[in-house]
UniProtKB/TrEMBL annotation:
Residues 356-412 form the External alternative NADH-ubiquinone oxidoreductase-like C-terminal domain. It is an enzyme of class 1 (oxidoreductase). Keywords: FAD, Flavoprotein, NAD, Oxidoreductase, Transit peptide. This is NADH:ubiquinone reductase (non-electrogenic). Residues 18-335 form the FAD/NAD(P)-binding domain. It catalyses: a quinone + NADH + H(+) = a quinol + NAD(+). The keyword Lipid metabolism does not apply. PROSITE patterns: PROKAR_LIPOPROTEIN (PS51257). It comes from the Bacteria. Its EC number is 1.6.5.9. Belongs to the NADH dehydrogenase family. It comes from Pseudorhizobium tarimense.
Amino acid sequence: MSGGIRLRLSASHNSRRHIVIIGGGFGGLACARALGDSDVDVTLIDRRNHNLFQPLLYQVATAALSPADISEPIRRSLGRYRNIRVLMAEVVGVDSGAKRVRLADAGEVAYDQLVIATGSQYNYFGHDDWQFHAPGLKSIHEARQIRQRLLLAFEKAELAHTEREKQSLLTSIVIGGGPTGVEMAGAISELGRYMISRDYRALAPNQMRVILLEAGPGILASFPQHLSSYAANYLQRIGVEIRLGQRVSAVGGGHVIVGDERIDAGCIVWGAGVKASPAFAWLGMKEPPGGRIPVDADLQVVGLSDIYAIGDTAMALDAEGKPLPALAQVAKQQGEFLGRKLRKGGPQASFRFRNRGNTAVIGRHAAVFDFGSWTLKGRLAWLLWALVHVYLLVNLEKRVLVTIQWIWRYLTRQRGARIIDEDASLIGDQKDVSRMIGLSRRR
């Protein structure tokens, strides 16, 4: 790469191993921390400068929290470890033979061992152009984009001259009935109905419409049936219209096509499934199922030495031979396990996932928890959900800030992040979204 800055940090310069981690999410950060202050050199590479607590991203999108409440600069997260270097750069390839990671416009980084933890992205099933009209929830940019459109729709509805125009602007569509879709639908409904009754004079709560579209036979398909039914009943009680067996055929500016029906909406959110980031292409692989890289019991990429994959990027199997789910707790446990393994530099027992429960919050006082052998729903599940998510935040500062805001929001129902950017084009620019789509394809 002529003209680039050639970075070479490896054991060829000293006796210490050099481990490169691609991705600063749950898995990558857990792995890096487990390697902190050890006798190896670590370089963590991410195209963003911050980590993000994605399970609470929907609260940024619905004005309950600000982006800074659930994110932190990676350099701050890892700054205390003197053996860890952080690079903000985009990875474009891996040369497994020469043991080098290629960076866009920044040369190469050599490694002795490589960890790929690049996470996942939303699957638009061959319709990537839908992303501009129906953003998902994988980044702060997307959360702010949804919040901007949602709040602007209410402001435009206040100025609308016809009932039809008001109805369209006050309709929000959430595509996908998994945990993200359920959480978004419930949060939008509660936010909108409270705002309308309190702050808008030309609107009425019964004019608001939230539609949850699910192509399958039920929402929360990965949960037991009784929890799925509880969630559906609760959502319907707070005004969410659930449509099952409804497959979207087109998404355009301010509308969704379902079958022969066109539904106009002020805000559209995508939550209909994810796929692994295409890191498999860096390794010269044909695309595996779901894009997830096959790994063995110690998380090493099958057929390649000194390259590991964790989190949503990896196709790891449990003791029964079933793929582990793409969950934050899986990524974090894998990162901790792999960090300890690489720190010791010797053999270690195979990775075993310990399921600490799968959860989804539905609304105020309502959540579901599935622990496998037993389940929990309702107010107690909601309280447990809150405690778990506060505990999992990146540091004490974030835990205190989020806890205080949640208590205030619970007591007053106020949402303090209801800010509309003065220059809305910064959020909805087509070129910027197209650039993001291109980056996600290359990543």
